[in-house]
Design a protein that fits this description.
single chain, mainly beta, four-stranded antiparallel β-sheet, 12 strands
């Protein structure tokens, strides 16, 4: 389990550009994980050589001083999510898969909803890795 202590809480948002499983997209670039250290990003790059792994260090807005550990929930806010496919029941699926750029990262849902009330809310657990996109779209 990775952890770090920092005066300013930061995490790494990790994307994975790859061939798309969806017929209308040739490639897609979902968020494949949120991790604590850059070493974890490098390890993902080595583990998935068929995926173009990239990452960005981001500050967590409502963080208290303390330790960030794997499995903590993190709330990402997005200003836009574009439709990319439909599910088996015909419901629209949205672009949390297709290179989402979170506008904010928060440790609590309350802070995310307060700071970005009109944005989409995306729940991810730190350390969760999924090549098809991590987390769950809440709103």
């Amino acid at each position: 389990m990775a952890s770090k202590s920092s005066p300013e809480a930061t995490v790494y948002v990790v994307w994975g550009e790859q061939s798309s499983p969806y017929p209308d997209l040739e490639h897609f670039e979902p968020i494949i994980g949120i991790v604590v250290t850059e070493q974890e990003c490098i390890a993902l790059e080595e583990k998935y050589p068929h995926v173009n792994v990239s990452w960005e260090e981001r500050k967590v807005s409502d963080a208290q001083k303390g330790v960030i550990t794997t499995a903590l929930p993190l709330y990402l806010t997005h200003t836009t999510l574009e439709q990319y496919d439909v599910d088996n029941e015909g419901n629209l699926l949205f672009g949390i898969m297709d290179f989402p750029r979170p506008s904010g990262l928060y440790f609590t849902r309350e802070a995310a909803e307060h700071e970005a009330p009109d944005e989409y809310l995306h729940l991810v657990r730190i350390g969760e890795i999924d090549l098809h996109g991590v987390g769950e779209l809440l709103d």
